[in-house]
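2 proteins. here.
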Amino acid sequence: MKTIFASCTPREEVQSGELREDLFAARLHDVMEGSADPIYQDPKRFFANTYPTSGLERLLREALGRLTGAEPSNAPIIRLETSFGGGKTHNLIALYHLAASGAALGKAVEHIVAPHFLPGQPVEAIAGVVGTDLDVANGINHGAITTYTPWGEIAYQLKGNAGYSLLEESDQTRVAPGTQVWERMLGEEPALIMLDELARYLRTARGFEDETRVGETSLAQQTVAFLMSLMEFAASRSNVVLVYTLTEASDAFGEETETINRELEEARSASARQEQGIIPAKDTEIASIVTHRLFHTTDRDAAEEVASQYVDCYRQIADAGLPVKATRAEYGEEIQRSYPFHPELLTTLTRKTATIPNFQRTRGALRLLASAVRKLWQEQPEETYLIHPHHMDLRVERIAHDLTSRLERPRYRAVIEADIYNASEASRAHAAEIDEAFTSSGRPPYATRVATTIFLNSLTHEIASGIEEDALRLSVVQPGDDPALIKRAIDELENVGWFLEYDGRRYRFKTEPALNKIIEDEVMSLGRVRAKKLLNDVIEEIWPSGILQVVHFPQEAAEVPDDSSRPHLAVIHYDATAISADAEGPPEVVRRIFNHAGAAGSFRRFKNHLLFLVADKDRRERMVDLAQKYLAIQIIKEDRDRMGELAEEQQDRLQTMYEQSGLNMRVAITKCYRFLYYPDAGAPEGYDNLKRETLPGQEQGEVVDDQCQVVLAILKRLSKVLDSEEDPLNAQFVRAKAWPQNRGSLSTEDLRKAFAQKEGLQIILDINQLKATIANGIQTGTWVYYDEDKELAYDAESPSSPPPVKFSATTVLYTPEEAENQDLPLEREEAEAVEQCLDCGRPLEECICGVGEGEDSTYDSPPVPTPGWEPLEAEGVPNQAFQAIVDLCHDQGIEQLTKLSIAVEGGSGDAVEDTRKLGLVIPQLDPDRVSIEQEMVAEFEGDETLEVSFRGSWNRYQRLKQLTDAFGREASDVNVQMVLTLSYPDGLGVGGDAFRTVRETMTDMELGAIQVEAVRMEDEADA
């Protein structure tokens, strides 16, 4: 498919930029005086540039047939009717040239008129009077003679001084002459009389009624009487032709046109056969006129191919929302007729823009299109197959001027500069800003295309402005375009445009500010301080503490704890530091916090438990801008007076914008905070063992409420964290990486801390994983586990290996060699002769937990249950409460449980903290087994109250947890109760690993007093 640059050649004057006003504004008077531009003055050049419309051909046949006698029965009176710029003057000039030159033009006009219609000798009696040339007050000076009326000017043009003398008194007294004066003046001589834009003269005459009164009548009335008399004279002669023009009643001089029509109505009815009405150019011919005038050649084969390709494209994307006509073969034919212009461009100019009186239809379209063609041929953009509405390039000053000031719509200049094109780099238009994303990825500037098309369709007079969305797509799309991207451009432009309005049916630009402009004004008034405070609050909300202890906006190292309890995520304030994607190494504030701890600047010990989030400086401003917009809309929404000034539709739109802007702000935050720094022994030299990972961008609908989960997911992908879903670490690996060199022993607590210290190790999220690794090391002989409290060591051969693992300074791991050197008391089979308590591991007579009392107390031989069951309920710190449950089960011979319930309650900050910790336990257990109940009543200053009641699963509760944790901390008074219920339909062994895991997990969280209830298997069966 050829581009227009390969298939069309513009005329030289179009490409050279000779776009003077007189190139398009032909003047009959200048042509008759011999002073017109050669384009109009030279008959051969004039007709070479003239497209033979059916109206022109008919006019020439009618007028010349009567003048020459070739068709004496033709109408003596011809009325040309159309709007300004509709081709009337051009047709009168054509008629003048043929009458004045006759057969001398020969072949130059054979494409327009048959030779036998051409006068053998030039017609000498020709008059052409234009209403705008007449001067009611001062007249037209011809040296010794000054004419004041249309009849005086016609007489002078027909026969000079001699002709004027015949009706001088009528001209001086402004009294219309009768038919006899014309008979005396012309005799039997052929004559052509042309009256153009008489309605304009009529308006001027009305303005001088007091000065030009003629008895009981006015000059305007005398002018109408003259016209009727002239028509009567022309009808009485076989070789006289009168051609006059009238504009449409809707045009600038519509009232005067109606007056003439009304006055002539009677005369027309009496001589209906003597007057012929002709339209110089039909709407269907405007494309051909414009193309012929602007282009020297056009390839019609290319036109056919382009039309076929466009219609095929429209049929393929019809589901994207196009008018039905676009897929029909008839539309392809319309594209061929309009080629190289898109039909929608010409339709817009001739049916919408042309309704503005100053536009002047064909003339105005020619002027605009010539500027557009010149710009296109200068730049020759790729894949340009038709000239679309958006090729009315508003960057071209002539085009922008013609569509604003020239049409007496100067306020639309502000629309262009705000929403479509602005030459100032410091204040770019909204469409240009949107197009950055398109053009940077090799796409066309869809937003500017859409905006320009809407703008062109917004310029109307007394008809509905704007364009429907399906018609907008049809105007913009071309083969190879993605309709989804065009839709995206429309939506984004609607979201940011200051003057763009969508009423549910049409898009249009208005000169009154739209909601976006009102919001922008509010943004400018509120400043950035309040917006940043809101931004800070939202950042704290979307990165809450949980598995990670989040420290928001630390500035000094002392603000970030240096401990091994939980990993810390430091979210660095975007104003404190922000980096670009190509930054080398971590920023200074990150290095300082990572390397130091405490006010005194001591070195940080637990570096492997410290992560950082840093903002992207290239996305920081957008994040702040969107926060400003969100806050601005919120302020407007909360102002009742301002909301009352808005229409209901605008209020609904504002609510939608409010919700959308909130989501946009959150998306922008996640896209800005995209640089994660984490400890890694393999980080580049000089980066302080910190490696950077870029977090993935999140779009609307993908934003996770808890952004810490995104961080954890990335760390998991990088194998930097170890949670319950991973396999435990190999003991040999841990000994090689975490064990101090040349050390024979290490406490389990120090081993746990080593994972928080060494950058080359994973971050332990589930402490049970490390317990499993320790147990594996005992069984594989990697180390020996020694419990100082029990004074007993366990190795692979110990009967109860592995023992329950705990983290403390008194449980120590020894290398096998060091254990042998220390002669540690290892648990062996022979020790079984001494019965031991299964819980505390001591001989029964030394039992300190109470379970082993009595000679026959073991789990292998449970006591015979006594009638009646004692409830399995206990209270105390976790280890104490669970031990009490173990004791109750032992005493009653209970080996299997089906449920465990753990509850915390209270009305203090400690209860709130225990509730928070209890929520953190859930991911370390099996969340699918857990059901949660929570009741919370929080009171705040100012008589504000929050009541929460929840019963459900972890999936839903984890979203609620952020809310209750935050409000619990803020409340002045709070009462909270939380119950976790773990279900084991297949049974939970009281002495098994699963029970031990629950117990140890609860103990490790260092909760305060809890209540524990258990349900034995038998109770569940009975129920």
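next one coming up
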Amino acid sequence: MLDLDTLLAGLETALYPQRWPLTEWLRRPFGGDLEGEAVVLPVVWGGYDQTVWFSTTVALPAPAGRPLVLRLEVPEGLVYLNGRPYQGVDVNHRVVWLPADLEPGTVLEVGIEAYNGRRDDPHTFALAELAVWDAEVHRLIVALQLLRDDPEPAGRDLLSTILPLFAGQATEGWQAGVPQALSILHGGSPEPEAQPGTVHLIGHSHIDVVWLWRLAETRRKCARTFSTALRLIAHCPAFYFTQSQAQLYALVKADYPDLYREIQAQVAAGRWEVEGAVWVEPDGNLPSGESWVRQLLVGQRFFQREFGVTCQVLWLPDTFGYHGALPQILRQAGVDYFCTTKLNWNDTTVFPLDTFWWEGIDGTRLLSHIPPVGLEGLMRVADLHKSWDTYAQQAACPHVLQTYGYGDGGGGPTLDQGVAADLWPHLGIRPAVRVSSVRTFFQAVAATATDLPVWQGELYLEKHRGTYTTHGWIKQENRRLERALYTAELLASLWAWQTGDWDSYPTAGLAAAWEGVLLNQFHDILPGTFIRDAYPDIQATYAEVHAQLEQVIADLEENRPRPAGRCTVFNVLSWSRGDYFILLLEDCTIDGLECQVAGHGQPLNTQVIPAGDMSQPPGLLVYLPDVPPWSTVTLTPEPTGRPLDPAPIPLQTRVLETPYYRLVLSEQGPIQELWSKPLGRPVLTPGQPGNQFQTFRDVPRQWDAWDVDADYQDQPLDLFQLAAMQVTEQGPLRWAVEQTYTTPQGSQLQQTIYLYHASARIDFVTTVDWHETQVLLKAAFPIPIEAATATYEIPFGALGRPVGDAVQFEVPAQGWADLSGETWGVALLNTGKYGYDAPPGWLRLTLLRAPHYPHPIEPWHLTDGARIDQGEHHFTYALYPHAGDWRAADLPRQALALHHPLVSQALPSFHAPLRIEGEGLVVAALKKAEDEPALILRLYESHGRPVTGRITFAQPVVDVTTCDLLERPIEFVPVTDQACALTWRPFEIKSLLIRPAATTDPVPRP
């Protein structure tokens, strides 16, 4: 009796009925015009991160009506035919289908851009041949493999029918049984009746923009994978492909224009689905709300411009959690559906839903799906059974999604998988399948699902909690550049509004800067989970963005020099504020004498501040009690006749008395006592010091750069010891204490604690020279408040989380976290950190980690010797005790004031073009509209309460319309007496398109 394994082995031999070895090649290093050497296969080549170019010429034989293929064994590479990129090869794709229209005798130049990968071991190039391909044999092989794996009677019955066709014959005669076997498969095996649901099959390849390789390699990975998908589309009529991330398409367009034109043609033909909506697949928690808007705005506009497509699905399978404002952001950007797989990675509880309504903090709902199999399923019985059998919403929805295809350089789907998807319905195997697209799947769900469950708030991933902290410098740069982009767009918009000169708006420079920031928000860059080779590239991208923004500001300042002896101070925030500003002494002394500073002719309170180890050069601290929104104040030094002495006065005290606090420092450095005079109570738990630098052994079981394990708190360390402390400033405007701590491993922490005469905020300006290994550092404050929840800022809102939760023991936040009781509370603000926790009676900010870099082959192993985050770090955090809860303290504005100090620009005097009234309203952006000389004003309600806001314009406007995040108009807003009123739901985002009267005729009102 012929057994199946014997039949399959024979058919594998018959798959290539004719073969012609290709043994002679020319090898040369990749890049440049280096001479090559002749080699004969097999040949050993490559080393760590090396690419080698192999080339040969092939004269095509007559294939007797069958297709010709190249068979190549290369770990990863791109095949060129006659100098043009044609198809990728890798361990999963070893067959290259030659164009069907090539005539016999044609001489082909074959080139292979062969990449060894990030392993030290070389490869052996052993197999290269031209062969005839038998498509019918291949189809039968795929069918038999599926039937072999089917544990149910239908598969065994079909096999029992097919195997006798080949029994009793020599292997050479099996070819005759192939057509009859295929006829049985195609004609006699309909899908099982009354199957309860359908698995939608999505051909896809997940490609990380940067991870275990640099961006330069990603460019080539895209060419390999995309070209392979194009050949599959041509070779397999049942194959459809889905690919996300506008950035990847932009790279292919720049580097491989011929491939890009093929992609555009297949998108137009409906065989290639463009989905995803965003520029890159970003981290789900760390980018600001406005950064999320730009991911979608830039991504959607790219897809519209290049393919005529507005994406309806946020395809974000591999990101480490998703904040609670995303449903609203997505719906406002034309996205109706959300798909991820990462919550399948939870380390503690099983996420209970697969298809559900995700309800954001504002009440917006988004149809969402988590495929049970995950990101890279295979076209095999086990995966498809899992897709349906473990599907949580079977009763409510008859549709589930499964991707297939190898990612990250694995080349995407294979021909075996494409043929299997086409054959499956004929084999009687359950479940029912459908070759589909992501959009088609969601449309089917929307049309058929009933009584889907609702998930409210964030989608918290119970894993990878270290990504809120790893690579602190990158996170600091991201926050810094988000602030800088806000300021640059604001200044450029105010100038255009004030002058009517819209042509000078720096559109190109700002767009390039945004693209750099958006790129580095990718979900393995901003979280810090990439190999060390990629770090210089990321630094270079940030340097380019800084240079672009500096040029934007320089162009705005051109021909507008700063007045001699004066300084123009600008408030970039949309509300009046009292704040501090430092004039360097060289800018505010006259003949070496101390000066009084006037603002708009009124004398201001000042304080001479000395130079110190931690501070900037000596200067004059000025307090401006009321700086109008989006306006300037000109500071004018006036001599007093008093001699100036900027030298520090030695102060030997550990007790500071200010209008707000009595602060006592312990001999070890932390705050021993903090008494709030306005609150009339201690801020810290008696007997527990505040601003402790708590350290812990941080050795996760795997995924070192990603994870913080729950048991880290059981491994405390006592590393930081006070080395020096002195009070360097003592009123009348500011008090300052400088401290230096060291560790046995050579780390040093220098910090200046600032207290103010007119602000309850206490700032901790910090520099750390970090030289630890697998150590976690937190700043900890004991707070005598019993509360069930702590509140954290997330993009465009805030969210409460349980205090002392065993699962959410490390959580992400934007600018602040707060612990409040019935009458008072304490907030911990920051300018570039994201990880917090709130054990009972504590509020803590995670400052640094020291994990190993991911290993370039096995990233989950702790085998890379280099450590992350070594060296110098600069950051600020602040303590803010307050009366009432976080809303009463207006923490969103307090955090923005810390992020956006008063700035000095050599710009003409500005006065706010509009005034915004409404409690809790915060401006996210003021920018030029994408397609016309008008302004986009984006505001959100930050307190979680409904509010009516009023906007008053300083000059006439033609009209105002609400618009979505893609700047498509929604509704006309009446303007009366140069003012308009609007209402906001709790945490609602509104964007307004404002057309100044000086521009052209208004667009039609919606």
